[in-house]
Design goal:
mainly beta, 1 helix
Length: 111
C-alpha cells in the first residue's frame, strides 16, 4: 500500500507564508504527476497545483503568482510554497499521486 505523508500546515496571518511537504515512495514520485488539492469547509475538493515528472507545472487561477510547487528528486518530496496567503486559502490540503491520497494537513489563514 503506497503512502503519501503531508506536513507543514498550521495557522498563519493573512499575507504570511507556509511551506507544505509531501513525502512519497520513489515509485509514485518518479512515475506520476504529483498534485496538491485543498478542501475548504462546505466546498468541494479542488486542484491547487500539480507537477509532472518532467517538472512541468500547472496552477489554479486563484493561486497563480502566490504558490509554487516543486519536486525534490533526492528526498522524493513534493513541496508547495505558499505566499501572500489569504483567509480564503484556509482549507485542508491534500497531496495526491496516482490513485493515492495523503491524510491532509490543515492550513488556517486568520488574524
Amino acid at each position: 500500500q503506497e503512502q503519501l505523508v503531508e506536513s507543514g500546515g498550521g495557522l498563519v496571518q493573512p499575507g504570511g507564508s507556509l511551506r507544505l511537504s509531501c513525502a512519497a515512495s520513489r515509485y509514485i514520485f518518479s512515475t506520476y504527476t504529483m498534485q496538491w488539492y485543498r478542501q475548504a469547509p462546505g466546498k468541494q475538493r479542488e486542484l491547487v497545483a500539480e507537477i509532472g515528472t518532467s517538472g512541468s507545472t500547472n496552477y489554479a487561477d486563484s493561486v497563480k503568482g502566490r504558490f509554487t510547487i516543486s519536486r525534490d528528486t533526492i528526498e522524493n518530496t513534493v513541496d508547495l510554497q505558499m505566499s501572500g496567503l489569504k483567509p480564503e486559502d484556509t482549507a485542508v490540503y491534500y497531496c495526491k499521486g496516482a490513485l493515492f491520497w495523503g491524510q491532509g494537513t490543515q492550513v488556517i489563514v486568520s488574524s
